[in-house]
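Please predict the structure of the following assembly.
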Amino acid sequence: MKKVVVITSGGDAPGMNAALYGIVKKATEENIEVYGAKCGYIGIIEENFVPLTIENTFPYLRQGGTILETIRFPAFQEKEVQRTAVEIMEKHDFDALIVIGGDGSYKGAAKLSQFYFPVIAIPATIDNDIFGTENSLGFSTAVSNATAVIDKLSTTAASHGHIFVVEVMGRHSGNIAKKVGKAVGADMTIIPEKEFTTEEVIESLDLSKKQDKKYSMIVTAEGAISCLELTKNIERNSKYKVHPLILGHIQRGGDPACEDRILGIEFGEVAIKLLKKKKYGIALRVYGGKIDALPLSEYL
Amino acid sequence: MKKVVVITSGGDAPGMNAALYGIVKKATEENIEVYGAKCGYIGIIEENFVPLTIENTFPYLRQGGTILETIRFPAFQEKEVQRTAVEIMEKHDFDALIVIGGDGSYKGAAKLSQFYFPVIAIPATIDNDIFGTENSLGFSTAVSNATAVIDKLSTTAASHGHIFVVEVMGRHSGNIAKKVGKAVGADMTIIPEKEFTTEEVIESLDLSKKQDKKYSMIVTAEGAISCLELTKNIERNSKYKVHPLILGHIQRGGDPACEDRILGIEFGEVAIKLLKKKKYGIALRVYGGKIDALPLSEYL
Amino acid sequence: MKKVVVITSGGDAPGMNAALYGIVKKATEENIEVYGAKCGYIGIIEENFVPLTIENTFPYLRQGGTILETIRFPAFQEKEVQRTAVEIMEKHDFDALIVIGGDGSYKGAAKLSQFYFPVIAIPATIDNDIFGTENSLGFSTAVSNATAVIDKLSTTAASHGHIFVVEVMGRHSGNIAKKVGKAVGADMTIIPEKEFTTEEVIESLDLSKKQDKKYSMIVTAEGAISCLELTKNIERNSKYKVHPLILGHIQRGGDPACEDRILGIEFGEVAIKLLKKKKYGIALRVYGGKIDALPLSEYL
Amino acid sequence: MKKVVVITSGGDAPGMNAALYGIVKKATEENIEVYGAKCGYIGIIEENFVPLTIENTFPYLRQGGTILETIRFPAFQEKEVQRTAVEIMEKHDFDALIVIGGDGSYKGAAKLSQFYFPVIAIPATIDNDIFGTENSLGFSTAVSNATAVIDKLSTTAASHGHIFVVEVMGRHSGNIAKKVGKAVGADMTIIPEKEFTTEEVIESLDLSKKQDKKYSMIVTAEGAISCLELTKNIERNSKYKVHPLILGHIQRGGDPACEDRILGIEFGEVAIKLLKKKKYGIALRVYGGKIDALPLSEYL
């Protein structure tokens, strides 16, 4: 193991830069050279490689986004393109590829692995919806961002006795909503995984009033029901006046929370350690609170 | 001057609680008792008075919203209701009223002043659109909140080369937009006070690309053009793909920025000092960077 | 289970108020009344009980410190005082006691449990040094606070090429230091559990220079070596000029990080669930990333 | 005016990078090229110039420290060295120099101006102690940083009824201390400009107890009395137990507060506007809340 290439792929997630630093730090100790391909898989095809060093990754350790940038590249689903990617990596003497990304990126990583090219994947998606892992880069930050914004609403809400319905990210998963709803003491949290009725929502608002909570807060994942539709439903079926708010891109952005920095660095270090031991064709994950790995074939 | 009553009125603004603390602090030194009427002018009519002390205001000095709460009370525009308010304040031996609020609240304060009741107004509105003052409570916080949120977008935007159009508060005033646009290095800032064309916006995006800014950011005040309309206009007239975001209530909420805490306490202290000197029928303001006062009659 | 009493004991830890809210929330659902004894164990002896409700705990959910306050009470180590505490709790018809605190508080809880009084303990200490648990309330916040402060130093450090030695809390444990050192990319992290030499520290600084890191950062736990002594040792044995900084109380204070809020509420909910099932004489903990419990007798 | 050179000099101050962006932004509009000399005046002597562009300044607009870095350079007080600097700037066809810094840097700027070389100075020092200006880059950030840290102490302090004595920066000036003391509701603020006695401090603590403030907070500027000495004096002359804390480098560091970003950009834009109008030999300042200028000869 002399030379590895890394990509960040799919949506950017806070903690990606920390992972890059963790990879480079451990690799430097092990005398492994690290290169980054710019903009995800497309950077491999375009042979757009840049050297990654302590000097050029350390300053970004605590910065959100990804210094390697990322662009969608649908053509990568074609077998021929994948084969080309492997050939290019071999041409450049890369001994392994580390892919930092979410669901889609994992699939690509699994495909490349089928060409017997050494690949390790690091989970990074704010939705935390990758199969098999308890945590992924960006999730803690998204929860923390959303919570911080709702906290800001709360002082206003308490001053006026307002009811807020806040929509957080999560098309198929209630992971962010559940954590955020817990953290802000939401009266009800609505997730795609569980049915609900408008009556239940209104009952939770009734209870909130009865308990003298000063303001009420419903958290909904975008995949369950939109903020605006829920607002309409509540206002039609009760006397309540509701203030809707869609958090949107605010959740994904910003500098990584402390957990995502630590997790990112640790993922990076473990990736290099495993490559050094000739362990690949795997996806890192958190399980039982600790980092271990699953075979990439699980993600085909 | 033995006993004064305070209200917070209109929309809540971060720094209102700091002003309450400033009033109580100075009043305590001057042996003046302070009461708050709950929920704005309506609290006077309903004789809903609570004593304000160092003990019950100090802990909220750095908290947003208003511990006195605030409710809209349109009936207060009637002369009879105003007269009743004055009679109730006299019945309770209040020697003066301090009103903390925005435009509408100032008008009410000016009306009460016409009954020869001593009134002082303190400017508090995140829009900073009260005539005559350079600054009002909540404005610094709103600018700082909006800037912080846009900063969060920026890391994501830079990773993907995105264009964001962000809508900030300001129905009639571009004050927030101008400061925020400056602070985030916006490519263009659109305000109600100045006409603009879609072509100009697109040119600013062209320039941004040319200057290799990695991402582009347009800030618009809600009163100039809505985020969604502007997005549509840009996408129809150019090849650009735009991400719209409405900041909404996030701007108004949250704990006061340092400036609003300091300004709130200072407004409160000055209000008591002036009352002590039998100066009233006035509205405090910031002028030339310092606190002075205008006659309330300016706001009739 | 009709009526329980709660104390927060020992040093305050961010997340204690969230735990109070979690307890009250779940207890309200289960028709269990909750009281707080003020200032820790002493509040039981002094029969200083206050009712805890959604109304008076919800607003503090996201606030640091403890609304129940806490005072050191060494007399509680005497068996007679413990017996009195149990008698008082029985006199007031309390069916169980929930203790939120650290090492010392756990010992007290275990003692009371020996009188066959139902007790559940919730781990809360920023040092995260309670036997058997992976996490305790306040730890995430302390790590996050320390990291945020060191981040602030970093921009200055990078502008001047400075070397900082930062001392974090941890008399017997390197838990905070290890996480913080990881999060900030420290050149070396010194902990009480592991010996080190001044030469190793200087070598880490040499390496940092060689890697063009722009600034260097050593993190030390107070129990390993003090900031000032380490500074002296480095400056005596090398040409380096070092800037020492002791973080002190800054780490412990402030509002809880998102994780401590969520963990606090979950601990509180689980405590009530277990009491309801007549499970007591136990200490909650995090194990394998999940909440479970150990017998309190482990802490005698 | 075709080509200007900029330095950041003396201690770094948050907002310096924003000023660089403001300069470059305006200069680009005016077709003026901008270069930075690295590390302050020494960068001129060493002819260490780098081009500054929108591309390489925009990403740092919201970052603390200075991307141009800064090193102390005592030799610059010699007339010969100053003359050399002017010759080098002329050799490189620089039409003007913009100096961003504090007291010492202003003196250097004034000296260069005596060689009839066009110079404009921009005030940047967290102490805000430059003659003639109401505000300087870094001051708002320092106040905000110190306030935020003391806020963190406050929750702990309130939980235990503690007394804190906090030492803020300010060797000759109480500017930071006054603002911070106001913002945190300090019981007393001690500054170098005003004598005080230990008795007064103790009386303020007595009053704090009497007013049921839950905790007490004294703020002292380092130039008035050190934290530790004051602690000793209080504890010797009263029954109070005091917790001292020195804020140190935390105040100076970190990303600029919104005000310093805005002020930095505005200073930068104004500097270019004035150079364009052939106004130089001046120092920008804030006066009456607005930016204007004083002759540099005031700082000789």
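Chain C has two domains: 3-138+255-299, 141-250. The two ends of chain C are 26 Å apart (CA to CA).
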